[in-house]
Amino acid sequence: MHKVDLSPNEELTLNWILQNPYQFPFEDDTECAQQNSSSLDCGMFVMFYMDKIAQGQPIPKSVDKNFMNEYRAQYVTKLLHHKHCVINRL
Fold this sequence. Notes:
The protein is an all-alpha fold and about 90 residues long. The chain contains 3 helices and no strands.
């Protein structure tokens, strides 16, 4: 494993996490799935990671564009069918 240089804000955040009394589990994973540099999927990737972590599932090492498109469609469907969705009140 290689050492990653942290920005001052990242270092403050990491120190806060490590000193937090709630004792959140912390994992350093530099080999998780990444979007390509021209992608605008950063929000979907974060939501995908949060979903996997919340379910206690491993995060895949890679995902392709088709997978992320399907994940986005599933997420939008969940939001549109949520009981508090504004569209359901029209």
